[in-house]
Specification:
Elements lengths: L2 E4 L11 H4 L5 E3 L11 H12 L6 E5 L1 H13 L3 E5 L13 H6 L5 H11 L6 H8 L2 H10 L12 E7 L13 E3 L6 H4 L1 H13 L1
Parallel strand pairs: 1-2, 1-3, 3-4, 4-5, 5-6
Helix pairs in contact: 2-3, 5-6
Length: about 210
């Protein structure tokens, strides 16, 4: 069984460093497809399905926005299991203060922020800043709005497998059946790579 894992908003497959995740077999850590004007989570999910030829017998998952899109993919083609890494099953889990970012993203010169990020990352050693520099500003603007109009998990009947950082201030930790990393923030795929990789491995095996 193949597994596709998507990155967060403004990020790419570098969210999953090879030193932690290379041992996982049959798992593809994908980049976002080239932006073609998608304005909703559903439109992006359809694009990813087409780009990666996702079928019902696969597993899908992702970090942050990637997990949200993975749920939408599962709703569309009835994938039976979704892996969420610091992600959400509904817009209500997203820090409401980030709604301001949604509004701000439509007027702010993101290219200026990327230039400033580059100046702070002269050596290129900060992978978070490097991913932000590589991101498509149009994609970030569109998805900042899209996450707050998304209808969430809705009537999806498959299995949701979640790992989340207790200290995540971007997407609040869910209640119930979720594996919690006590000292984890929002970027657990990078800061707690071995734990997240082990979680993915266990979910695939069951």
């Amino acid at each position: 069984m193949k597994t596709l894992i998507l990155p967060g908003m403004g990020a790419d497959s570098a969210m999953f460093p090879l030193k932690y995740y290379a041992f996982l077999r049959g798992v593809r850590f994908a980049d976002w497809p080239e932006y073609h004007g998608e304005q909703t989570i559903r439109a992006l999910a359809l694009r990813v399905i087409d780009e990666h030829n996702i079928t019902v017998d696969m597993l899908v998952g992702g970090s942050s926005l990637g997990g949200i899109v993975a749920i939408e993919i599962a709703k569309i083609i009835d994938v039976k299991k979704v892996i969420l890494i610091g992600s959400a099953t509904g817009a209500e889990m997203i820090n409401p203060g980030l709604r301001m970012l949604s509004i701000f993203s439509n007027i702010a010169p993101f290219t200026l922020f990327q230039i400033l990020a580059g100046k702070m990352n002269i050596s290129g050693s900060n992978e978070v800043l490097s991913m932000f520099q590589r991101a498509d500003c149009r994609f970030i603007r569109a998805m900042c709005s899209a996450v707050f109009t998304w209808d969430g998990i809705a009537d999806y009947q498959g299995k949701i497998c979640q790992i989340h950082g207790r200290r995540d201030l971007v997407i609040y930790p869910p209640e119930g059946d979720v594996e919690i990393i006590p000292d984890g923030g929002h970027l657990i795929s990078m800061t707690h790579g071995p734990l997240v990789a082990d979680f993915i491995d266990r979910i695939i095996a069951t």
